[in-house]
TrEMBL record:
<feature type="transmembrane region" description="Helical">
    <location>
        <begin position="260"/>
        <end position="286"/>
    </location>
</feature>
<feature type="transmembrane region" description="Helical">
    <location>
        <begin position="298"/>
        <end position="314"/>
    </location>
</feature>
<keyword id="KW-0812">Transmembrane</keyword>
<feature type="transmembrane region" description="Helical">
    <location>
        <begin position="85"/>
        <end position="105"/>
    </location>
</feature>
<feature type="transmembrane region" description="Helical">
    <location>
        <begin position="165"/>
        <end position="192"/>
    </location>
</feature>
<dbReference type="InterPro" id="IPR050297">
    <property type="entry name" value="LipidA_mod_glycosyltrf_83"/>
</dbReference>
<keyword id="KW-1003">Cell membrane</keyword>
<feature type="domain" description="Glycosyltransferase RgtA/B/C/D-like">
    <location>
        <begin position="63"/>
        <end position="222"/>
    </location>
</feature>
<dbReference type="GO" id="GO:0005886">
    <property type="term" value="C:plasma membrane"/>
</dbReference>
<keyword id="KW-1133">Transmembrane helix</keyword>
<dbReference type="GO" id="GO:0009103">
    <property type="term" value="P:lipopolysaccharide biosynthetic process"/>
</dbReference>
<keyword id="KW-0808">Transferase</keyword>
<feature type="transmembrane region" description="Helical">
    <location>
        <begin position="204"/>
        <end position="225"/>
    </location>
</feature>
<keyword id="KW-0328">Glycosyltransferase</keyword>
<dbReference type="GO" id="GO:0016763">
    <property type="term" value="F:pentosyltransferase activity"/>
</dbReference>
<protein>
    <submittedName>
        <fullName>Glycosyltransferase family 39 protein</fullName>
        <ecNumber>2.4.-.-</ecNumber>
    </submittedName>
</protein>
<keyword id="KW-0472">Membrane</keyword>
Amino acid sequence: MIPTTQDRRALLLLLAATAVMLMCGLGSRELWGAETRWANIALQMLQSGDYFDPYLKGGPYYDKPLLSYWLITATAWLTGGLGPWSLRLSSVIAAWLSVWLVYLIGEQLFRKGTGLIAGWMLATTFYFVFWARVATADILTVCGVLAAVWWYWRGPDDTRFWRYVGFFGLLALTSLFKGLIGFILPGLVLLPHLLREGRWKRHLNLRLLAALLIAGAFYMTPFLLSHLYGAPNYGESGLGLVLRENVVRFFQPFDNIGPIYTYLVYLPVYTLPWAPCWIIALWVAARNWRQIEPETRLLVQGLGLLLLFFTASGSRRSYYVLPLVPFAQLLGAWWITRRMAARNVQGRGLRIGFAVASVVLVGVLGVLYPWTNSDGGVIRFGETVREQASRQAPLEQWRMVMVEVDNKVPMYLQTGGAPFYYVPETEDFPRTGDTAAMMAWLDRTSGQHWDPQRTIIVAQYRSGDTLPLNYLSADHQVITTTPTRGERAFHGREDQSVAYLPRPAS
């Protein structure tokens, strides 16, 4: 079906509104949760020039494949530095593409208008937009899964070699974001169609095998580069972690253990405010199973297989349900367009609902949330440290020591100087004493000389506790985290950071 000018305008409006919801206030919010891991790993890559060995807290941390870190470092290079924008931009772009892909899949498989409604439903889903503005690999995985499904449905019976290369290449690329679920999830969604009428048999050919080998080589390339060009003493194997995170965790979970009904609870929550639509759609589809379109039955079956797969894994967390969200919204959009066609209505109320939801999302996530994060917190803390340090010397002349105290590591902070030096709590660094003792210990343990006048020492502590390494305040300027507007209004800040900046020599 050739899109009309009106169709193009409707799509452009959807994509423009989605961009506003995703980017408004994006750089004004503090780092949150797992973002600190991505930030610290990417920062160490940028500072050290070693892009093949991810480190966290001074130790090897190959918890995820390298690609999500590389996207952040590439964005940081393009934007001129690592910050909230460069950290989150790859997730934002992936979310924007996901909305477009849902539109394309919906328009391709169902009646006209289904893709547009599904796109608006996804773009105004609170938790989808929330996680799209977080620097992790989850939305990247969602985008990869949708891209592979879209590619398949462009020609499900096409057996040309380059069609296979494109499909399996997308699976390999998706698997380089978070793990082997990049291969598994699209396969589960498409399995009902492949099994129907023995369609899978026509794809058993040497061209598919050759494409699969190419995709396998593409997937292995970052791990091979890490092995060849990474540090020879790096302790972790990327492929070993793939096995641990994707196979061992599935059958013998060692963390993130949730009840078996986890996703029955969180799928409705993660599809708000449109959860009633897909729930009603599921009921309608079940009642009219033999009369509904084959594509709808395939969608329900694929969604069911995804839910069974995630439930079968003993490792469960709420946001693991994110890959199911676009398909649930597609199902809801199918029911809405079916109902609109039966009643011969244009959906004016639906458009008002999407407009209201868009305004609310921009107001909450783009304005209110960043406002509560402003005027304090880690962002202001980092700005203050850099501002005070630059008054004494250019930032590139400074070196930074991150000290872990009571199992707390300072949140991401950069000066633009040499890579920071991480001191784990297990080390015997001076808990009491004076600056000379600390600097002598650093010289001895690191095997290099630390200039006391160009070294910033940072630690983290819990609000109300005594400042860690407080003896440094005798000859250092003390800079601490100040509460944000939200923390001042609702509660005190629990985790605080403190930086000790040497006072200029008299």
